[in-house]
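Bumping with the actual sequence this time:
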Amino acid sequence: MATAAASKSYALPRDLPLDSGQALSGVEIAYETYGKLNADRSNAVLICHALTGDQYVASTHPMTGKPGWWERMVGPGKPIDTDRFHVICANVIGSCMGSTGPASKASDGSPYAMRFPVITIRDMTRGLVALLDGLGIEKLHTVVGGSMGGMQALSLAANFPERAERVLAIATTARHSAQNIAFHEVGRQAIMADPNWNEGNYYDGEVPAAGLAVARMAAHITYLSEEGLTEKFGRRLQDRDSKSFGFDADFQVESYLRYQGSGFTQRFDANSYLYITRAMDYFDLAEEHGGRLANAFAGTSARFCVVSFDTDWLYPTSESRHVVHALNASGAKVSFVELSAPFGHDSFLLDVPALDRVVKGFLE
């Protein structure tokens, strides 16, 4: 395990401007660091987390006790080598692991709940850049992200091109498809249909755990592949009386999804889920830059690496190619690789040795 300092929090000295035209006051950014920053501050690597991720990329999660979500990738001698690099991972604004979000207290002392302003991926990136300013890091060696983290990496490259020498975007997209948005809407409706949601005002009572669990179950299906589900579960039944019938989990895959849903409710805030999924749905890097994706990367000097997986049907390889074509059109230096793995979208989090080699090679 990579050695991490105690979890830190940075208070932004100024209001954070948002794409909505509003500004967020008193913003806190929670983050973790691993490895030492060198004398000229040139070895900093920023890792951007996915939708349900957090800053605990390579250290034990304080709520679940589980290892960091990318511990296999980050640490001494690992592809993102903390003996060489100073790694930073921050919880995005709108989330619920220490950074300012819907559960945070507003100026009146009560949780924002649904009074929290609408946020975008670019707003999240502004928060990350403000953190880098506070840490005195002018230019990153690399910004890395998978899934929503990849959106942030691309957003940083497009909107703050001087802040990163290298950009590694894994299993991601420059905008959501109608199908992506549809899956997210199912999850949001499940949360809002839970009586405990109470229009977002549940912080002093029962949380909408049932709705959030269903949202997580629906989303988790999109992170997997049919091949992976079939290999892991098939149509195998639970180990119980096969003559019984009811609405309990009969198939192993049902039990697995329920486990995923119930565990998720212990560490994530339902309102944060609403806000972050909406931010992902609004993300359209081309629209932000005059309707042409190549414009987003015009004049960039960064080197890019884009990675996709052949079983990822959430953000298929065609989405990565779309980004690569735009980078080529802008004259950027870019490499692209589609990796074979049976795990679907979650492949970037799991044991795929080929990804380790790509990450290590690109950073070095």
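The tokens above came from a reply further down the thread. The CA atoms of residues 16 and 164 lie 21 Å apart.
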